[in-house]
Amino acid sequence: MATGMIQEIKKYAKPKSFPDSDTYKGISVEHVIRLSEQFEVPGKEIEIAALEAEIVPERYARNMKSYTLDDQVVLLKSTVSVVGLGGLGGGVTEILARSGVGTLLLMDGDSFEDHNLNRQFLSRQSLLLTSKAEAALQRVREINSSIAVRHFGTFLTKDNGADMIEGSDVAVDCLDSLHTRTILEKLTKSLNIPMVSAAVAGGSGHVTTIFPEDPGLKLIYGEQVDPSLKGAEASLGCLPQAVTLLSSLECSEVLKILLKKGNLARNKLIVVDLLDNTFDVLQLA
Amino acid sequence: MNASAKIQLKLYATLRKFLPDDCDELDIEPGSSVSDILKQLGIPDNEAKLIFIDGKKGAIDTILKGGERLGVFPPVGGG
Prior knowledge:
Chain A is an alpha/beta fold and 285 residues long. Helix content of chain A is 38%, strand content 20%. In chain A, strand 1 (14-17) and strand 2 (23-27) form a beta hairpin.
């Protein structure tokens, strides 16, 4: 850590209180940015140093108590890859950036089309025909300039995938094709990376967490997935309320994996159907 | 011998259109397989990818005796 950084952080720390009146010391977004420029380090380094001195970066104040200071440090030191930046990926990127996951690897070779606007939070009319990966990078910078982003404007394949997701603590499957999901799963297993996978059709969907040693997607889709096989979404589309809910569930799993807290949906499938308000946790193995 | 039994049936996504009105108390022949029931309802076997019986993964040839909750999902991959 640069000499004097912690003194400067302490200088800017102000007494604050939570809504329940408990007090803490906080440092503002503005001061994190200023110190990041002064010491020429990413904002997350300032935030980690602050947290280690029991000073809460204000942007994470409402994470606190649910998370400890140490938990927030763990998140800032974590790396998550988001594979696919459509409906699921847009929601996942948004939540992980706001949660303060320190490094996001964002990948999608696609550009926005009109029919993405119903559900993909990264899409905007002004961004039609432009790169989803570029939009995701810009969005994260606008939400949380403290964290690091690497973006890849290419589709994941078995040949290029390892380079993109290597070094991740978790990979999030936000893809929209059955076959590509199986490619991602093979890569995560070979690189020993846990994966969280969700899929949506209409107002229903499911999410599961797969550790490298788990049977994984074959429990859902069978041993062999025909590359030409289309899922139910081909005829039902994807509704924004379903895809966004599933992206939240994916993030919940990712954050529990990173923080080693709570129960994971390993060998389980969380199944949601918004049409009749059912939410089941089903045993896959 | 009891000639009929009832199950609770839930069909997801594209399979929803096959759901009979009496899905909460669907009459079945005890000893029917999941496949028999799907056939009765006109659901092609290859669309019934994921089968759950009482919250646990089952198979197309699992035999039902009545009283079970049967859930069937087609392949879903959207995002």
